[in-house]
Amino acid sequence: MNQKQQYSNFIKTQAKRLGFLGCGIAKADFLEEEAPRLEKWLQNGYHGEMHYMENHFDKRLDPRLLVEGAKSVISLSYNYFPSEVQQEGSYKISKYAYGQDYHHIIKDKLRELLQLINDEIGEVSGRCFVDSAPVLERAWAAKSGLGWNGKHSLLIQKQQGSFFFLAELIIDLELEYDAPFKTDHCGSCTRCIDACPTQAILPNNTVDGSKCISYLTIELKDAIPSGFEGQLQDWMFGCDVCQDVCPWNRFSKPHEESLFTPQESLLDMTKRDWQELTQETFSKVFKKSAVKRTKFSGLSRNIDFLKK
After folding, report:
1. Cα separation, 137 vs 51, whole angstroms
2. CB neighbours of 274 closer than 8 A, spacing ≥ 6?
3. 74-93: string of b/e by CB count within 10 Å (b at 16+)?
4. 287 with 264: CB under 8 angstroms?
């Protein structure tokens, strides 16, 4: 076994020990296939009001512009599939936001992994990314062999489905690279396309972000357009419809991350409870949650929209 293989095996072993579901490694290079796709997606206005998506176009496609001397992109997945869900007939939040904010939890694990690499191998420079920088994480995950991008554009892993977060560690160390995941195992299935309440899922593994319920309830800061009345199917923060109907998610297993356990009251709250939500209850239920991104005012706006 050569040194690059040894280093790669060490990293994957430590990633598993830290609780990551999968770990794949790709060469830090220009994402040639993604460039025209991203350009077209932006030109079509599928990013809606997410103007930040227009920024750092070159950095999104080349990790060497994000991390000086970058040689490897380590892609990692982290399970968030819950053992229990909200009660039937209530307003819904996306499963990923049940517990504490994943950004902090996963970033801490990435920092620990980088430290372990330094302890074992010597001085290795790099940066940790969790869904908050210009990194095309799904492209890198597929390139590193973790899975394929489904018709809903999310990454799917054969044995795990798609209820997981993606994160990256971009480092200046050359490693043994995994083969890209080239096979699309969605076949002729169109369940996610057919089930999308707002017809946001387009052909060719593309999502019109400006129609996506997650965008409308989280990213959009203005009023939700009246044309979407009656289409949100009681989703007040995010949406899981395309994942809930995906046949691959029959393989999803509940996570073992205690910090993702929801506030007890969250799962039991009824529509009336949500309609009577106060700032105080919001702060208590979503103390360290990603839902805080919408603020109390944003969640109230969404609930008012659903009541129409």
Report:
1. 19
2. 90, 91, 236, 303
3. bbbbbbbbbeeebeeebbbb
4. no
pTM, to two decimals: 0.96
Six-digit token string for 120: 């074992």
pLDDT in tens, the chain (308 residues): 799 999 999 999 999 999 999 999 999 999 999 999 999 999 999 999 999 999 999 999 999 999 999 999 999 999 999 999 999 999 999 999 999 999 999 999 999 999 999 999 999 999 999 987 899 999 999 999 999 999 999 999 999 999 999 999 999 999 999 999 989 999 999 999 999 999 999 988 899 999 999 999 999 999 999 999 999 999 999 999 999 999 999 999 999 999 999 988 999 999 999 999 999 999 999 999 999 999 999 999 999 999 98
Annotated binding site for cob(II)alamin: 60, 131, 155, 166, 214, 239-240
Range of the domain at 93: 1-308
Length of the chain: 308
Per DSSP, what are the bridge partners of residue 169?
74, 128
Query: Annotated binding site for [4Fe-4S] cluster, which residues?
Result: 186, 189, 192, 196, 212, 239, 242, 246
Distance CA 235, CA 297 (A): 16
Q: Which two tokens stand for residue 211?
A: 């129609």
Burial of 62 per CB tally in 10 Å (0-12, 13-18, 19+): middle
Out of 29, 108, 131, 273, pick the active-site residue.
131
Annotated binding site for tRNA: 221
Helix (H) or strand (E) holding 164: strand 164-171
131 is catalytic: yes
Give the H or E element holding residue 201.
strand 201-202
The strand pairing partners of 146, in sequence order, are none
Amino acid at 62: D
In total, how many domains does the chain have? Answer: 1
